[in-house]
Design a protein that fits this description.
By secondary structure, the chain is an alpha+beta fold. It has two domains: 112 residues, Rossmann fold; 163 residues, Tumour Suppressor Smad4 (Sandwich), CATH 2.60.200. Strands 5, 6, 7, 8, 9, 12, 13, 14, 15 and 16 form a ten-stranded antiparallel β-sheet that branches. The radius of gyration is 19 Å and the shape is globular.
């Protein structure tokens, strides 16, 4: 029998619905809300869940909350001990969008026998250095959905709107190397994707599956920003961002050096304070077990 625990971190928009459900609605087996004023509350609850041998952890939140849970399990070498499920109660919910999950799915994951399919998702790893000549990495992170660079940290700190983010891009000289080749060019941003959607439903190719075990790296060239803005507008209407100007690389391991400082981000999480000049992406051998609809 599954020992089910619901870990809740709804967005401000979704909080009234979650509060009504937990206060006056259904009887959940075990649950807790993450206290945002407590910076390590997610990890505290995760440690507790592992201690009492929870076998199915239901994450109520978005891509960032799921990222933090998966990262915590990965650091604790506990990914193989936990089945995960996702209730899309966050801001972007891009992974849930790929699998067709809705808020009403929570009942499927509460059942003793989950109603769906236990998918085995690939896990990506990103590491960065402030100097390519450095022997040690300055930081690392994992990602389930996507990771990349191009957005300046100042734009993140200002919490710029998507259109202001677009006009914050400056050309970045990139040298990329992977098993099958190398390239050089100048690009506005680079995205390493395990799953298709990012930034609330934008995509380059809708057919990407996080169960494939391969990375797609998309390099968006420095070009007229008005044309890029029109391309992003098409994306907001549900059209692909991919065109013949964008470079795509498919691999399991890539290394990139840049001519200016960059701030890498994974699954929309905050970028590091210290910038980088080299970033590597690779697919890890570990898998994430996630319940999805058949």
């Amino acid at each position: 029998m599954a020992n089910v625990f619901h870990l809740m971190n709804p967005s401000l928009r979704q909080t009234p619905w979650v509060s009504a459900l937990t206060s006056f609605g259904k009887d959940l087996s075990q649950w807790a809300r993450i206290a945002r004023q407590h910076p390590t509350h997610t990890e505290t609850l995760l440690d507790w869940a592992l201690k009492i041998n929870v076998t199915r952890l239901v994450v109520w939140g978005g891509d960032g909350t799921l990222h933090r849970v998966v990262k915590g399990l990965w650091k604790r070498k506990a990914l193989d001990r936990m089945e995960l499920a996702l209730v899309p109660a966050g801001t972007c919910n891009d992974l849930a969008r790929h699998f067709g999950l809705s808020k009403e799915c929570w009942g499927r994951w509460e059942s003793v026998r989950a109603q769906g399919r236990l998918a085995s998702l690939s896990l990506g790893h990103m590491a960065w250095k402030s100097s390519p000549r450095s022997a040690e990495v300055d930081g690392e992170d994992i990602f389930i959905n996507n990771a990349g660079f191009g957005r300046p940290r100042s734009s993140f700190e200002r919490k710029d709107s998507p259109w202001r983010v677009l006009f914050s891009f400056d050309p970045i000289g990139v040298q990329a190397q992977w098993d099958q080749g190398r390239l050089e060019g100048r690009y506005y941003f680079t995205l390493a994707a395990l799953a298709p959607y990012f930034s609330g439903g934008l995509f380059f190719e809708p057919s990407i599956s996080p169960e494939e075990g391969r990375l797609r790296l998309y390099l968006v060239p420095a070009r007229n920003k008005l044309r890029l803005a029109l391309r992003l507008l098409r994306g907001r209407w549900g059209r692909s961002l991919f065109d013949n100007k964008i470079t795509k690389i498919t691999s399991t391991h890539l290394s990139l050096e840049t001519d200016v400082p960059i701030w890498p981000q994974a699954d929309g999480e905050p970028p590091p304070v210290k910038p980088a000049r080299q970033v590597t992406f690779r697919v890890l051998p570990e898998k994430v077990k996630l319940w999805v609809i058949q």
